[in-house]
Amino acid sequence: MDRHETSTRIIAALPEHRRGEELVRELAERLGAFAGAVELPELVDGWLALWSWVREGDDTAGLPMLMAGLTGGWKADQIPFVRLALVLDVLRADAQVRAAVRAAFALLAAQADATNLFGSAGLPSERGFLAEAGDRLLTRILPRPRDDADLAQLLRRLFPDRDAVAWLQRLPPGLMGELVRLLTEDAAPGSFDHLRRSFTDGFRLLAVRLQAQGLGRHLRRRGANVPVEDSPFFRLTRLSLVLADEWDAGRSGEADAWRMEAAACRTEMARIHQSLGETGVSVDVVFSLEVLARCLMRMELMAGTMTAGDRQGSAAELRRLLVRLATFSHQDRSMRHLAGTNLRLLHQRIVERSGATGEHYVAVDRADYWRLWAKAAGGGALTTLTAAAKTGVSALHHALHLAPFATGFLYGLNYAVSFVALQHLNLILATKQPAMTAAHMATVMREGHSEEERDRRIIAMAERICHSQLAAAAANVAVVAVGAFSFDLLWHLLTGRHWLSPSEAEGIYSTLSPLNSGTIFYAALTGVILWMSSLVGGWADNWSAWHRLPQGIADHPLGARLGRDRMLRWGDSWRRNIAGWATNISLGFMLGFTPALGEALGVPLDVRHVTLNTGILSLACAGLGEKWWVGGFFLLALSGIAVMFVLNLGVSFALSLYTAMRSFEVGGRELLTLVGRMLLHLVRHPLRFLLPIGLPARSAGHGH
C-alpha cells in the first residue's frame, strides 16, 4: 500500500465518531508516511516523526474523550502513553495496515545495523580518560554527519533528552510487549535475522571488551593474584560466546552459570576498588572500572532478553535495555558526567588523606588542647621572620624595580621555606587547619552510624574543631604580634632604625583597611588558595602512592653506595612528608605569585593572610613609634585583620567541606539539615564551641 491508501485505511479502521479528530488525522499521516517508505532515509525520518508524535501525548487537549474510546480501559493518569495506545488500536483494527507497518519496520531493521548500538554506543573509548574527554569535546563542537544505517544514532534521535528517556522508562511493560508483538508477529521468515545477528554480535563485542579491560595490567596487579584462565573476566567471556551461539541458533540458553560468573566479576571489581585506597587512585583505572561496570550491566540486560521465557518477559527486558542504552547515549557525550564519574574517587582519596591529616589539628583532650596552643605559639614566632622577610622583599621590589615574576618568586620562596619549616618543626599555622579539619569532619559524616549517633558525633567534632581552631589562631596572632615588636626592637638596637620606615608603615595601614582597600576580596581569595593547596597535597600523596615512589626510593641502585638502610629511611620520609611538602610549597608559591599575576595581567590581585599580616601590622606599628595611632587608621587595619581571620578560615573550611561532601555523594538537603542542628546547638551551648569544656583531662593511649 502507498502512503495515501494506508492513511485512508487507518481512518476507516476506527469508529465513525473518532474519524474526524485531529489526532487521528495526524496519526494517519505519520503512520502512512512510515508504511509507504522504501529508502532507508525515508524509513528513518518516518519512524522518528511517528515516535515524536507519540511522545507528545501529555501535551494534547481533549485526551479524555479519546481515551474513552480506546480498548483496555485507560485512565487519566496514563495520559503520557495514550497516543501509543491509539497506535496499537489502529494496528489491531486493520490487518493490511498492520502488515504494511510491519513490513516497513522489517525493512528498517534489515537495512540498518544495530551492532554498534548494542556493542559500543554509550561506552567510553578504550584510550583512557584524557582521550575520551578530547573526543567528547570535539563532538560537542564539530557538526556530526547523518548516518541512517547506524541504529545507535537513531536511538539518540528518538530520545533526544532526559525527558524523552524518562518517558521510555515509565512506559508500562505491557504496552511495550504489545507493540513488539504487533510489529514482529507473523512476519515473513528471516525478516529480523539481521537485527538478531546484530544483537548477538554486539553481545560478543561487549564480552571481548570486558575481557580485555578486566585483564589489563593495572587491574590485574590490583585484583586477585590468579592465572589468567581463572580470572572471572576470562571465564565470563567464554560463557558469553556460548550463550550468544545458542541464541543465534534459536535456543534460549541457560544463564545460571553466566550470572554466577558475572557476580564473580563484580566481586573482583569491588576488590580492585578497595585496593585503590591503599595503592593510590588513577583516573585511568577508575575509567577502566567504569567501562567494566557499563559493559557488565549491558550484558546482564542483554542476557536477560536472550533467556526470557516468554514474549512478555522478553519485552520487559528489552524496555530496560533500551532505557539503559538511551541513558548511556546521553552520558556518552557529557563532559560533566565523565569528569564527575572518574574524578570522584580521586577526590575521595584526596579528602581521606586530608582528613587523616586534619585529625592531628583537633584536640581530643585538655592536654592535647594546650599542646595546640604551644605548637601554634611556635608557628606565630616563626611567622614573625616570614613577615619581616616579606616586607624586605617588598622594599627590594620598589628599590630595584624588580619584574613581577622575580618578585613573585621571592615572595613564594619565602612563604614556602617558612611553611616547610613549620611542617618539620611540628608547629601549627591556624589558616592551614580548616581544609584539613573540614575533610576530617566529612569522613566522620560518612561513617556507618545511625542518624542520631552520627549527628552526635559530628556536633561533638564541630565543638572540638571550633575551640581548637580558635586556640591556634589566638596563639598565632598573639605571638606573631609580640614577636614582630621584639624583632623591630632588636633591629633598632643593632642598627639605630626601625625595620620599616614611617612611609612604608603608613602604606601598610592603608592596605589592610577593609574600607580603603580590597582586603575583603583578597582575604576570601586567600581562603580559596588555602583550600586549593590542600587539594594539591592530597593529589601528590595519591600520585606518590600510585607510582609506589617510597618503594622506588628504597629500592634505588644508589642504595649500593649509600646503604640500604638509608634509602629505606628516605623512602619512609618521602611517604610521611610528601603531602605536607606539596601542600606547603604549592601554598607558598600560589600566595607569592598571586600579586605578580595580577600585576602582569593588569588586574588588582593580592593576598591577605591573617597571621602574616598581623606580623606585618605589628612591624608597621613599631616603625611608627609614638605615632602608631595615625589618626585612627590602626583601628581600620585591626578590623582588616579580623576580616582576614573570618574569611581565611571560613572560605577555606566551607569549600573543603562542600567538595568533600560532593565526593562522598552527601546530599545538599542532608548537609543543610545537619548545619541547622549545629547552629541550634551553638545557640544553646556557645561556650562549648569557644572553650574545651567537654574535653577530658587526658585520653588514654592518645598522642599526636
Describe the structure in your own words.
This protein is an all-alpha fold and 704 residues long. 75% of the residues lie in helices and 0% in strands. Among the domains are: 116-146 and 192-333, no CATH class; 355-384 and 417-690, no CATH class. The chain has 31 helices and no strands. Helix 19 runs antiparallel to helix 20 (404-424) and helix 21 runs parallel beside helix 29 (633-663). The longest helix has 45 residues, at 451-495. The relative contact order is 0.08.
Shape: elongated
Quote the average pLDDT: 81
Q: Please estimate the helix content.
A: over 70%
Radius of gyration: 34 Å
Q: How many β strands by DSSP?
A: 0
Percent of residues in beta strands? under 5%
Structural class comes to mainly alpha
Q: Major sheet, described briefly?
A: none
Poorly predicted ranges (pLDDT <50, ≥5 residues)?
A: 58-69, 71-77
Number of helices: 31
> Distance N terminus to C terminus?
85 Å
